[in-house]
Specification:
834 residues, alpha/beta, Rossmann fold, 3 domains, ten-stranded mixed β-sheet, six-stranded parallel β-sheet, 47% helix, binds N-[oxo(pyridin-2-ylamino)acetyl]-beta-D-glucopyranosylamine
């Protein structure tokens, strides 16, 4: 195994330049140096972007020594490491997080103030790297933060998409997508390392070669690829919270090979060859925006193999000592598969071991099985990735062959264990036969992994009982749960400085890295003074939100109403429709005179959601929300007690201002459909009360905060399953519930579409005809829960008591705890000594 490029590794003996002085003067000096020498400008002429870039690089300098030291220690001590493989990292802005991690917030703002610069203004200049779709991508970002804060030797591997998740705009209330050109203004947080490029092969064919003579002859396979691309690594710092540990996130960018071999392509066809080059560079061009319903696009499979092949090669070549005996790989790494997107890593490691390292098949399989663990993030059948065999065989012929052999041996095991149960064999096969032959990536992952985990108790239970039940019967010990978590650094300490101060004043600042200590706040829930101060924080956060939305979107939100928030990807199973039906019902009540204004608790309903561009029903629902908003907000009476705000382009930055201001958190998916949810945790930690179903991690939130501080409604998972089994007929609810009928009729009659009955017809007929996620079945129960919300909100003291208890009892949802669970149950790695 040759090393790529001639690179000297940092070793213990490499002298490290000293960090800049952590003082205001030191910071000013370093900052001006950056502005002059790197940005090439002077203060008087510097643009906001110049100033931002110089600030980002200055902060980076303070973290550099820790980064180099962490890397050196890792290389020197060769501990077991976690390699997190994820096609998405939804990082959010970096500046503030880095400042907080390095404990430089005050120094930086003082230093810049002395130069007449407002740090707050520079913060706004950062375009967040939106390299993920939603929950799964944000989870990966939280996890690498926690791993660094816990000083676990870890590396995140992923893709440096040139375009992240699309920028959402509304035109007449309908979603339009614009490219997210996040790199345009420069990318001060990344370090390109073209000298560490990795070559990745695709296509071609497999040759069978015979080695040896006569009876000793063995047939081996040799992959003759058709084309290649290069992967260039870009490194990002992942700073732990004030602990001197800075881990690495390594994202791969695709580039065409240098000495382009024209013969590989259509011989002599120059134009065709160049076209193919562009094609190669397309691989890391854009993030696929489908959340939960991936499409079987060839380019997507190319992306998956591309980053995984780069990452495995990189780990073996760069992080292990030269000549390391790969038989011992499981002692040194756990590759954590973030859903099925990186599962092609399994046949890739087999290929490396068998074809390149000369391992016998069984030896290679033992090593491979020891190196991988798989996290599943869904329960929806349409979200389980499946790759048509002809597509996979065309792109990765040797990998397909390897998958077939893995499957043959696996099915042999199933036959033996089941007494030749042919139906079971067909059900469990890695290869599906219908509608066409295809590779079931979740099955491949489950067969290969040491451990398979779901992301909340209920989800893991349903994986064992339903989605992967056959596998759980065969290998019960393989299955485990790790309930998701969120990083308290970004989502409390950074996003909610006022609450953070209040907490720290009460219990000290240990909670930031030990979130269970929030428990110490419990007695303060009964302290009227503390509750008053808590309310002050909420209301200041509402002011901050109002400012933010006024500036960003020109949206005016009142600051003295209940803030009712539903933010997440738009999907039918999440049931944004249910909440808009509640809004319509309130509107209808007031307009029809059945509901007096005085009887309504004034509320502002905020939505944030992107729909996958090809998901027509989701886009319809976005249109409906915006059209209802327009009618409600412009109605002279209704708008006195009810407002709807739908800021476009919901992202991590918006979440950070919105969540700390929220009173009510909407977590209203149909039970059994939301694997976990992580927004739900962020709201609870910021003192919002949840209205929610018994789904995903809501179940655990409710258990911890207590029934009195959570508004539960709706069918349970077993109930929903029973209703579906018996034959669900949504029209019955329409016929029997007059309030529901009035709300649906308003939509159908064109109340929100200028009298046009066609506009939202698809939504209405879907709800009345199929209603796959039982919106109508849960409608009344939801309405009743909203009534309980109103009653509770009328008593501010009782409400804030519940809110404080939500904060105090949600420490469990720190991603630090998730990491401990992964370490104990799956990874068995340990912190680096510092
Ligand atoms: C779950 N994304 C949440 C969260 O565990 C859960 C799928 C296909 C292609 C691209 N992205 C996806 C997801 O499946 C996803 O985000 N799943 C979510 O993972 C973290 O909290 O319940 O829906």
């Amino acid at each position: 195994r040759g090393r790529v490029g001639s690179v000297t590794r940092v070793t213990e003996s490499t002298p490290l330049i000293a960090s800049p002085e952590p003082s205001v003067e030191g910071f000013v000096r370093e900052y001006l140096r950056e502005l002059n020498f790197t940005q090439g400008t002077v203060l008087e002429r510097a643009s906001t972007n110049d100033k931002y870039l110089a600030l980002a690089r200055t902060v980076r300098h303070y973290l550099m020594a820790s980064w180099m030291r962490t890397t050196s220690e890792h290389l020197r001590t060769q501990p077991k490491a976690v390699a997190y493989l994820s096609a998405e990292y939804l990082l959010g802005r970096q500046l503030d997080n880095a400042l907080i991690a390095a404990d430089l917030t005050d120094i930086a703002s003082e230093a810049l103030a002395s130069l007449g610069i407002d740090v707050a203004e520079l913060r706004e200049a950062e375009v967040e790297p939106g390299l993920g779709n939603g929950g799964l991508g944000r989870l990966a970002a939280c996890f690498i933060d926690s791993l660094a804060t816990m000083a676990i030797p870890a590396i995140g591997y992923g893709i440096r998409y040139e375009y992240g998740i699309f920028r959402q705009k509304f035109e007449d209330g309908w979603q339009v997508e614009k490219p997210d050109r996040w790199l345009d203004n420069g990318s001060p947080w990344e370090f390109a390392h073209p000298e560490h490029e990795v070559t990745v092969s695709f296509g071609g064919h497999v040759e069978t070669v015979s080695e040896g003579e006569g009876a000793d002859a063995v047939e081996t396979s040799r992959w003759v690829p058709g084309w290649e691309v290069l992967g260039v690594p870009y490194n990002y710092m992942v700073p732990g919270y004030r602990n001197g540990c800075v881990n690495t996130l390594r994202l791969w960018s695709a580039r065409a090979t240098h000495a382009f071999n024209l013969e590989t392509f259509n011989y002599g066809d120059y134009a065709e060859a160049v076209r193919a080059q562009t094609f190669a560079e397309n691989i890391s061009k854009v993030l696929y925006p489908e959340d939960s319903t991936p499409q079987g696009k060839e380019l997507r499979l190319q992306q998956q193999y591309f980053f995984v092949a780069c990452s495995l090669r990189d780990f073996i070549d760069q992080l292990l000592p030269q000549g390391f005996d790969l038989h011992r790989l499981p002692e040194r790494v756990c590759f954590q598969l973030n859903d099925t997107h990186p599962v092609i890593a399994v046949p890739e490691l087999m290929r490396i071991l068998v074809d390149e390292e000369g391992f016998a098949w069984d030896e290679a399989w033992e090593v491979t099985q020891g190196c991988f663990a798989y996290t599943c993030h869904t329960l929806l059948p349409e979200a389980l990735e499946v790759w048509p065999v002809d597509l996979l065989g065309r792109l990765l012929p040797r990998h397909l062959e390897i998958i077939y052999r893995i499957n043959d041996e696996f099915l042999e095991e199933v036959r033996e264990a089941s007494g030749d149960d042919a139906v079971l064999v067909r059900r469990m096969s890695i290869i599906a036969e219908h509608p066409g032959r295809a590779v079931r990536m979740a099955h491949l992952a489950t067969v290969a992994a040491t451990k398979v985990n779901g992301v909340a108790e209920l989800h893991s239970q349903l994986l064992r009982d339903k989605v992967l039940a056959d596998f759980a019967r065969l290998w019960p010990e393989k299955f485990t749960n790790v309930t998701n978590g969120v990083t308290p650094r970004r989502f409390v300490r950074m996003a909610n400085p006022r609450l953070s101060e209040l907490i720290t004043e009460a219990i000290g600042d240990g909670w930031v890295t030990d979130l269970d200590r929030l428990r110490e706040l419990e007695p303060l829930a009964d302290d009227p003074e503390f509750r008053r101060r808590f309310r002050e924080v909420k209301s200041a956060n509402k002011e901050r939100l109002a400012d933010f939305l006024a500036r960003r979107d020109g949206i005016e939100v009142p600051v003295d109403t209940m803030l009712d928030v539903m933010v997440k990807r738009l999907h039918e199973y999440k049931r944004q429709t249910l909440q808009i039906l509640h809004v319509i019902t309130l509107y209808d009540g007031i307009v029809s005179g059945r509901l007096a204004l005085e009887d309504v608790v004034p509320r502002t309903v905020v939505f944030g959601a992107k729909a996958a561009p090809g998901y027509a029903m989701a886009k319809q629902i976005i249109g409906l929300i915006n059209h209802v908003a327009a009618v409600v907000n412009n109605h002279p009476e209704v708008s006195r007690v009810l407002r709807v705000a739908f800021p476009a382009n919901y992202n991590v930055t918006v979440a950070e201002t919105l969540i700390p201001a929220a009173d009510l958190s909407e977590q209203i998916s149909l039970a059994g459909k939301e694997a976990s949810g992580t927004g739900n945790m962020k709201f609870a930690l910021n003192g919002a009360l949840t209205i929610g179903t018994d789904d995903g991690a809501n179940v655990e939130i409710r258990q911890l905060v207590g029934d009195d501080h959570f508004f539960l409604f709706g069918l349970t998972e077993p109930e929903a399953a029973a209703v579906a089994e018996a034959g669900y007929r949504p029209a019955t609810y329409y016929e029997e519930n007059a309030t529901l009928r009035r709300a649906l009729d308003l939509i159908a009659r064109g109340e929100f579409s200028g009298g046009d009955r066609q506009t939202f017809e698809p939504i209405v007929s879907n709800l009345l005809g199929e209603d796959r996620f039982m919106v109508l079945a849960d409608y009344q129960s939801y309405l009743d829960a909203q009534q309980r919300v109103e009653a509770a909100y009328r008593d501010p003291d009782a409400w804030s008591r519940s809110a404080v208890l939500n904060v105090a009892r949600s420490g469990f949802f720190s991603s630090d705890r998730s990491m401990r669970d992964y370490l104990d149950r799956i990874w068995h790695a340990e912190p680096l000594e510092s």
